[in-house]
Amino acid sequence: MAGFFVRRLAQGALVAFGVVTVTFVLLQIAPGQPLAGLAE
To answer: Digits of tens for pLDDT over the chain (40 positions)?
Structure first.
């Protein structure tokens, strides 16, 4: 049962890392207009 929780925790951390990375990349691509594409 512990392995299940560890696996879920690892997946959650990976997803969070991915979201942060994508957000950072978007901010670098569009400086001055952060998330302008998503607001449209």
So the answer is: 789 999 999 999 999 999 999 998 887 776 665 555 555 5
The first and second tokens of residue 5, run together, are 């929780």
pTM: 0.54
Amino acid at 36: A
- Within a 10 A sphere around the Cβ of 32, how many other Cβ atoms? 6
Using CA of residue 23, residue 26, residue 31, residue 32, what is the dihedral sign? negative
Spatial contact of 10 and 19, defined as CB atoms under 8 Å apart: no
